[in-house]
Fold each of these.
Amino acid sequence: MSDTSLTLAEQESRRRRRQTRRFLLAPALLIILTISIMPLGITALYSFLTPGTYGGVIWEFTPDAYVQFLFERDIFDGTLQFNDSYLTIYMRSIGLAFGATIGALLIGFPTAYFIATKPREQRNFWLFLITLPFWTNLLIRTYAMLLILRDEGLINLSLMGVGVIDRPLSILYTDTAVFIGLIYTYLPFMVLPLYASLEKLDFRLVEAGYDLYANRFRVLRHIIAPIAKPGIIAGCILVFIPGLGAYITPALLGGGKKLMIGNMIAIQFGSSRNWPFGSAAALILMALVVIALLIYARSVSKGARAHG
Amino acid sequence: MADTPPLAAGATARATRRRIRSRDLKAMPGFKAAGWACIFALYLPLVVLVIFSFNDNRSVVKWTEFSLRWYEAAIENDGIRNAAWMSVKVALVATFFSTIAATMAALATTRTAAFRGQGLAYGIINQPLMIPEIVTAISTLSLFSLVKQLTGVTGVGYLMAAHTAFCIPFAYMPIRARLEDMTLTLEQAGADLYATPWQTFRHITLPLLMPGILAGAMLAFVVSLDDVIITLMVAGPGETTLPIYILGALRRGITPEINAVSTILVGVSVLLVLVLFLVQGKMKK
Amino acid sequence: MTSEIAKAPEDTTTRRSMITARDLTKTFGQGESAVTALDNVEIEIRENEFFTLLGPSGCGKTTLLRLIAGFELPTSGTIELDGEDITALPPHVRPVNTVFQNYALFPHMTVSENIGFGLKMLGKPSGEIDSRVREMLSLVQLEAMANRRTDQLSGGQQQRVALARALAPAPKVLLLDEPLAALDLKLRKNMQIELKSLQAETGITFIFVTHDQEEALTMSDRIAVMRDGQILQIGTPKEIYDKPTHRFVADFIGDINILEAEVEGTEGDQTRVRLKDGTTMLARSTGADTQGHCAVALRPESIRVAQGGEAPALTGQLENLVYMGSAHNLHLRLGSGEELVVRHGGSTDGIDLSPGAQVGVVIAPGGARVLA
């Protein structure tokens, strides 16, 4: 009588299944590994090389790229001076991404709640409505936002038409414009995970809360928010991480003056012809992303432990 | 019988009113307004764009009359036509290969007992969604330039390969969803009736999976059409896609033709997504 | 109670063996959470038999069926089909076809395409497939539905398509996994008769899985009663009903009274037992545990009220009297506290049947059996 040993037939069948699975997974895994993942190693390598004259790299190892991130070499006496311009860009990016996350949360939460409380048959329709803009071209969406924010754009015209202001507000090409643009871009990313969490909310719990003399605010804080917490965390990550690496939004709405990390990296591979520096900047960005993901992973597991 | 005494009638009305008010327990103050405002804000810019693409006037804000002249101008523009054709070419190739790869991957990872390395496989398949696009863009550029140096091979194949890679997770999602809705019983019935594993796949699994595969293909197509950053970095000269063209045109200044082209692109995306949603709705049965 | 019991068939155990399972074990999972679905099962199913696997859910009957079909591999043991070892063969090679519980009809094919699927997979020429499909359609009386899609059919029609589809390739064995479970009562009764005659007509060995003991008794040549992964008894419906060898089998099939008793000794082919209230009686020995504690099984219809001057074998207080039309069901409370149900078919004139009356009963010869 065997308990844990398998018949030869079962072992053979398992082996065949494993082989089939490997064969089926091969194309997708190979493509993504070679084109998206392995190159990250090349980027890491490049960050330690010397920039070529016309772009590309020269195979001489140097930590210059990383030094350049924080310091500038004085051309006359060769000393290193602290240069905060790149740091500023990173700080601005973190700030903007973080701010956009909060903004998206403040707008997205009521919206997700609104959809979750609609009758079941209608919900798919509302979700479709929220996600549809996501599938249109980001460039075009940002361009449309530019049309609204510019001096001759809808906002200024309507404000002036109503008489609230005399001259157009210079919204475009400011941090504010980028901020608005980021929220606009990533709002569906916040709403969807929030909705997924809120949909599971049993509204009898809410009724119980009211029944126990809690007012609306308390119900929100003590009953609804904790249940929505996984959705809140997921939504924040889905906005913050792409927001950190945004390119189009700051390029169009920041007008080349309000650079974010994405623009800076792109420039290094374009006009500045400094691939190693661009690679280093990209790796530093990746480090920030990893930190954010670790915080996310920790809060998820803490949440699991708290409820488990 | 006798009419309800007036006192009782009043009490009933009051009770009804109280019931109607308290039924709205679910609503939070201001949330409904916020919800509507959010949807309004999401669509307003796009709606403005579309409306003004039909504006006869050059101005992007003053409406004169309905006109299709910018659409005509856009279609006649060689740059736009070539860019559109390049976009479609790349999207078709990328869709083809990514959908096949995604279908195979979905078959391997769905409806099976947990296997070693499942999390890792999942992570790799979804990687393009997890890393900021700019990082993927420059890494891929670095890889391709290295390969070009070593082999001397150039061409639009690099761009197509890059698109294929990031289209895979988008094609994967609907296929996997459809597969999860299919129980294994039908395939067992096929095997019971003498179908070999390949025959079972061909006659049973594949026909039933087809709506999911189509949905995945459409999604991949839309995503490839709309890509900007990776294409910006990786595309060589002469490989301008429509979004890259629009980006370049925007740098030179806003023109109404851009509105027209943008509206067309948006229209195509919306149409495909609409079809996708309808197909998925039918699949749920 | 049950309607007709199958008329005594010829003894099927003289026929050649079709399915033989030896030492068959199937466990799911590993280590502590492992579940044993089948525990060293031995079974021999004969040619041209209507064989039923009967038992409550979780007893392993469906697992056994799936092992025969090939959808699962046994953890240990062997299965032979018509002399050939099929233990490791994949399902698409075994000449065995299944009628699934939810029919598993292919939704993207018509009725005809469904029925012809097996033959198509075997590579038969299309002319042969067409004529066979027509044959099957008339066998299950669905000629009018030939080109319908399967979701346009009623439950009963779908069931018949599933049947036709499984019979079309003329398998050696047909497996039926609770195929009548989803049908309403009237349809079910009709299908039971249809299935039975189909089996006789085609001569194919049917292995039928059900948890409904009435169904099993009505249709089968032989029944295997299962519980917890083991086969408790195999026999004809009459054998299972009249001579259960296991308390669970007796309890599961039909109504039965089970009284606790102690064995006192044997007298020929009878055993003398002492009941809880001290009364002794004779009961037929069954070869089950014949020492110490045992159970006495009595079918309600083998007991009747003592009349005239008959000496009662048992006496109890009448708690409930149920008039069934053809008989009276008396619920007596014995001195031991146990309940005894008596089906008295004859006249009740002259018997005191007032509530609380003391009623004596006599047992038909061989009506009492000793069980473990």
Amino acid sequence: MKRRFKKSSYFPCKLNQLESDLKEQYFNSSPDLSSKTLNKDGKKCIVIFIDYLVNSDNLYDQVVDKIQQTPQWDNPSIKNKVPISGAQERSDIKSIGDDLLEGGACVYVEGEKSCLTFMIPRVEKRDPERAETESLIFGPQIAFTESLDTNLNIIHKRMDTSSLKVEKFVVGDTVPTEVRIVYLEDVANEDNVQELKDRLESLKIDDAMEASVLTQFIEDNSYSIFPQFLSTELPDRFCYSLKEGKLGILVDKSPSGVIAPVSFFSFFETTEDLYTRWNMGSFTRMLRIIAMVLSITLTPTYVAALTYHYEIIPDALLVSLGHSRTRVPFPPLLEALILEFLIELIREAGARLPTKVGQTMGIVGGIVVGQAVVQAGFTSNILIIIVALSALASFTAPSYLMGSAIRIIRFPLIIFAGLWGFIGIVASFAFIAIHLIKQRSLNRPYFVPFYPFQPRDIDNSIIRLPFLHSNKRAYSNNPKQVQRFPKPKKPKNNDIDEE
Amino acid sequence: MQSQLQIPLDKKIKAVYLCIVLHTVQIGVGIAGFPRLVFMEAGQDSWISIIIAAIGLHIVIACLVFVLNSYGDHDLHGVLTTTFGKLIGKIITFVFLVYFFFSFFSVLLNYIEIVQVFIFPQMSSWFIAAILLILVLYAVTGGVRAVVGTSIIFFFGTIWMMWLLYEPITYVQVDSYLPMFTTEPSAILAGVLTTSYSLLGFELLWFLYPFIHDKPKVHRYSQLAMVFTILMILIITMVTIGFYSKGQLEENIWPVLSLIKVISFPMFQRFDLIAVALWMIIILPNLILLAWMVSIGAKRVFGWKQKYYLYLVCLIAFICQYHFDSRHEINDLTGFVGEVGVYFGFLFPVLMVPFAIYKRKKGKKKDNAKN
């Protein structure tokens, strides 16, 4: 049903009429509309607002009190006296109603030709807290919150530079949501910025909901299991990526920032690698990548070897493996699937339960069920080790989405290994590799630095070299300035013990 | 001009990749059986055959790049149509495409056979073919970027297997190479011919050339790729000949795969099973590049969309593999493709050189006339 509002000619009107019209025409007789009528020297004035949307301190101290102090009641002098910026003169019900919904208070002095609105919204928000999903051992622990203002505040504080550019978009027709693109103007590649802007502008959706939902609308390939935009809750990760020439997206009401374009290997990096020394950082980065590979190969290899290729199992191991599998009534494929499924169950249950119960869940699920499963002859000991190891390995991925992707790809791999042995495994790996090569992130290659082969980017992607040697931004992002800082001069090549 | 290809810059690739792409299209299923074939012709002096073939190869590549450079931004179809006119150009390109399709098909059949002999005797051919063709379809639909990308990634994914030769090298007996220089020249020449079969694949350059971003470097990198291929073939052949005794080698159809049987790791008792499965990653770039060549070539000759030709190629290959199931047939097909390939691959570029020189001279005259 479309309501009809009288334009411009509405004012002047009676105070009561304004209130009842607002209530009935705009708010559908909502009980939340409050008002206060003031009297002075025979003049009457009404302040209308919605209880829970305005900051009551501001309302009484800055609006009502100031109006009462005003010697002469008319629009210009009230506007002058009330210290709240951005007062608007409204002359139709619809725009007044819109302002009230955004946390405004409307002031109408009887007989005036328009009505004043002051924005005094009350925003419920939490303070920034420690990062939960991407926890760090050391380094800044602050995390983004649901409030866009707070997030922008944190970013501006971290990146105190004039080239930081923030652009505003509004996404969503039913529920408009504010979206900001953040980037360093003198570093970020213009094509990337333009591409992202185009995607956001051409987006026609009802509600962006959350950063991760918005990401799914604007990413390159929605059918892929691999995330193409990196979402993080760590402002330092976010700012570091901006400094590398990437673009950041912030969405109001969402506690995560989104980074694009990213490569596959970005999902295995943490800022902690930068805070630790370079050799430790390189080690942990490679550890994570190896863990990822192990996590998706171990169980399929077990299944393939036991089903078809027992020849590849070393003699010594074959005996103990055979012994532990003597009581297992299932084929290896079924055995592995049952156990993998069990691990996923424990993980999912642990994630859904409150923290206190979650611990008990871990003990019950992990130790009791694990023991019992082996003793009951459901699975072999060795499979328990392998499955636990690959589950452990999949949790090393710093990005939750990537970790989940790895855990899920394991299932088709296990099935193919069970059906066609090593041929199945190799074919699935080839498929994943082709998929990663075809993938793009914001029209940039996803599998960089391997393809397109960028040896210069390896210094800060798969490994991390000392900062003195890796003074360049990744070439794959095509940054405007490649150098982050000038390379320090090498000391003269002195001999041992020479000055 | 119609035959000139217009390719957007972001679809182009760097010439450096030729180094690996040309190498991956040359090395494939053939290398597994090659040492035996060349040994049967040239005996312990096979290395001389390989080196003579290598010299020939470098000359042919020089001719090929010379021809391509003199025609500008053209692929095979463009070169032929500008030289011989539309009809003849299209016919010759089509003949080339048929040849490429047969090499695609023979790679497919040979790998299927290897899998059936080494790992799964019961696995049906159509099934392995289906797996491979699905992967080929998926990769080629990604365009030239994905095609080149897969061969590079798969190359890095398999090149470490060269280290597997380390253990066989310790078993090499120097006696196997002796006596040197005793083979008849005719036998050596037969060896050269055998070697040239397994060097085929560089014809890819005919179609990839317009997609290369920095053309002046094409020659350098394609020659480098050839050096790389020759070295690899030479090393593998020498190790194989040194490792086996004469009689053993002649009885082994895939001596390189059997070579890997001696390798065992603490985790893997027999590595050869894994190696045969991994061989898929070595031959996939072969199949992908060949399928890409056939489909883009067909598009250039007949028009229509490239993807339809791709589906057609895969479909025909899938249907045809039903009719090849004995070792003999596959062998005959592979031998035939190799023999024909010598003409298409080695002779054709050399024959084109006079036309290229003529074209260059004409171009110069035109330039002079303009000035």
